[in-house]
Amino acid sequence: MDGQDKTVKANILSILFIHVKFLFIGLKVFSFYPVNFVRRYSPVDFGSCAHRMIIMESYDVIIIGAGPAGTATALFLNDMGLDVVTLDQAKFPRDKVCGEFISPAADPILDDLGVLDSIEALSPCRLKGVAISAYETNEVFIDYPPAPGSSRRMTSLSLKRLAFDQLMVDRVRQCGVEVREEHKVTDFIFDGGSIVGVKGLDENKTSFSLASKVVVAAGGRNCISLRRLALLKRRKGGGKIALAAHWQGNNLPQDYCRMHVSKPGYTGMAAVAADVVNIVLVVNQEELRGKDLHEYYLSAVLKNRLRREILADARVTERVRSVDSLSYSAAQVPCGGLLLVGDAMGFIDPFTGEGIYLSLRSAQLAAGVIGEAFQGAGFSRQHLRVYEERRAREFSKKFMLSKILQRLIYNPPLCKFVTRRLAENPQLAETLVGVIGDYLPAEKVVSLKFMMRLAAGFPAGSGYRQMSAGPTRIAPGE
Ligand SMILES: Cc1cc2nc3c(=O)[nH]c(=O)nc-3n(C[C@H](O)[C@H](O)[C@H](O)COP(=O)(O)OP(=O)(O)OC[C@H]3O[C@@H](n4cnc5c(N)ncnc54)[C@H](O)[C@@H]3O)c2cc1C
User: Is CATH 3.50.50.60 the right assignment for the domain spanning 56-95+163-234+327-403?
Assistant: First the structure.
């Protein structure tokens, strides 16, 4: 190629470049194309990259995961007028192993998100409280107390995750937020010390890249942030597995969540529809070595006297599903541009059944901090850390309580003693379920005063005694 050819080629390239540049300016100024097209396909300035300007589809916020945490975050951010996309590797409706009851404290958040009426329209169960049995003692029925400032007793929603999660995704779409199903995020895009987008594979296994100011990792217990940023910390005693299945039949309990702690593990049983209960069994993983999951589940569930009675006219309606390594936590995020919500932040144990509430509430807190970031606080690690601090301030005592309960339930004499004390002292019992239900402050239980009142009488008659025959009821106002 001689010098003249080179000049011609350079001119053609520069004219092309100018045209592309003007096309973008034109798109922005005259809005020939839908605004979203212009906004989404804009040059993204990766300041420190070798190729500074890359034309990439871009959003204000990318959310990984369309479970409760991701969908709630999407709805809160959409309300703030931010441009959000939610990516999920699954095709909905997708199922999930879960106790399927939702802490009473979630009601106002679900209402704020505009989904409570649609949930009620599905005729979910409303549980009045919790019934506890410790190592085959009779059940102690504890009603949820009223919330502070109210005289109305609280209840907890209970419905199939298949329906709840689908409803949340539908709501996100109704609000105009894009949800891309079967879009698996495989990596983050980094620029300097911050995350500025994600890469992944779509439903056709074609790779995609998206840019954003901030990424919210709401991918649950297997979230990419836990692995890619090496944040995953396994907790001691994490070698547990949960087995779950729905049962159908007559005379199934509809009004309380039944928590039975006994050998080989504990079960949570909650009605999720008329004549349908969900039973989750949590045991040590070693228990299952070499055994058939389904057969093991059936025999362990029916090993307990109370459950045999309750399930006398019921049958399991599906193959058991499982999830292992229940307990883990996430280290602090080391870079800007990323927040973790829901299970992506960690999980203690399903005993207190509060993961959905925590997901919704952490979404609310994260959205607040993201809102501040867009108003000028920025997306640096320094600012986004505020979210982790607010979350820790709100939940640290509750997490402490969950850990205390974990120790308690695996100590049969202590577990029986505490259950008996709760039966004897309705006020203590209701305070505890109010805290577990996330609407009374955890300080009410994680306190010397509560512990001393609970411990009164210990060790005399420390739970070795079988409780009196017939269920012990703690009725409202008793
Ligand atoms: C045995 C058990 C029982 C439980 N019982 C209860 C209960 O009774 N009540 C309660 O409130 N909580 C309960 N929980 C906790 C509750 O299930 C979780 O806390 C809740 O589901 C967390 O929601 P999430 O949105 O963070 O994650 P998830 O619901 O797990 O949603 C994460 C989503 O992210 C998607 N995803 C993951 N990785 C990627 C990726 N790389 N790219 C794109 N998408 C991705 C997944 O497909 C999924 O849809 C229980 C948990 C267990 C294990």
Answer: yes
Q: CA 344: distance to chain centroid? A: 8
Q: How confident is the model at residue 353 (pLDDT cuts 50, 70, 90)?
A: confident
- pLDDT digits 0-9 by tens, 95-130: 999 999 999 999 999 999 999 999 999 999 999 999
What separation in Å is there between the alpha carbon of 100 and the centre of ligand 1? 11
Q: How far is CA 440 from each of CA 69, 407, 435, 444, 447, rounded to the nearest angstrom?
A: 22, 22, 5, 7, 13
CATH architecture, domain defined by 238-324? 2-Layer Sandwich (3.30)
State the average pLDDT over residues 266-293.
95
Domain positions in the chain: 56-95+163-234+327-403, 130-158+411-478, 238-324
Pick the atom of ligand 1 nearest to 69's CA.
25
Residues whose beta carbon lies within 6 Å of some atom of ligand 1? 64-70, 87-90, 94, 96-102, 184-185, 218-220, 222-224, 242, 280, 323, 326, 342-344, 350, 353-357, 359
Q: What is d(CA 342, CA 344) in angstroms, rounded to the nearest whole number? A: 5
Which atom of ligand 1 has the smallest separation from the CA of 343?
26
pLDDT of 309 strictly over 90: yes
